[in-house]
Amino acid sequence: LRICPGAVVRRGAFIEPTAVLMPSFVNIGAHVGAGTMVDTWATVGSCAQVGKNVHIAGGAGIGGVLEPVQANPTIIEDNCFIGARSEVVEGCIIGEGSVISMGVFIGKSTRIYDRTTGETTYGYVPPHSVVVAGNLPSKDGKYSLYAAIIVKHVDEKTLSKVGINSLLREVQSEIHG
User: Fold this and answer.
1) Which entry of 33, 35, 39, 63 is annotated as an active-site residue?
2) pTM for this one?
3) What is the DSSP letter of 18?
4) Active-site residue, 134 included
5) Structural domains of the chain sorted by starting position, each given as residue range(s) with its CATH number in brackets
6) Of these residues, 64, 91, 97, 134, which one is catalytic?
7) 90 CB contacts (<8 Å, ≥6 apart)?
């Protein structure tokens, strides 16, 4: 476990071994998985669940929830990349291996449009999706509304762009044994 100066972890949060916390904030009840990096100025909210080998880039926010009791936590499954200044909130789930681009906002009311299938969902990004910020026309066609757009599924090119994190983890484990 590596916690850099400026990182804040509230009592009651659980951080697994080999996680890296840059100057960031992890709130009460949150779970951060092994090998995950919470980058500079990122926030993991109350009771949010972040899987293993996730990178939460600078300034990104993972929403939390303490009440009402029946509210669902925001979940980021294993091996995801959450881009800088993105927000995932309101109990949304990001499926394993997904890449959320910089500046994407996903809440329960956000349309998530898969351009390869034409399907629209809310609150859930399927595994291995690559998501960017976009717009879709309103029902009457008079204006456009924000949407998260699944542009493709993760491939080797995508992995090469976000794969530097695994390389750095390998070097770190060799150095620290």
Assistant:
1) 39
2) 0.89
3) T
4) no
5) 2-176 (2.160.10.10)
6) 64
7) 63, 65, 74, 107, 108, 109, 123
Residue among 87, 97, 114, 134 flagged as catalytic: 87
Is residue 177 annotated as part of the catalytic site, yes or no? no
29-72 pLDDT tens trace:
999 999 999 999 999 999 999 999 999 999 999 999 988 877 89
pLDDT recorded at residue 163: 62
Q: In the structure encoding, which two tokens stand for residue 81, read together?
A: 């990349």
Rg (CA), the chain: 16
pLDDT score of 159? 74
**Beta strands 144-153; 129-137: pairing state:** antiparallel
Q: State yes or no: is 87 an active-site residue.
A: yes
Q: Please report which confidence band the pLDDT of residue 176 belongs to, taking 50, 70 and 90 as the band edges.
A: very low
Based on the number of CB atoms within 10 Å of its own CB, is 140 exposed (0-12), middle (13-18) or buried (19 or more)? exposed
Q: Which amino acid appears at position 18 of this protein?
A: T
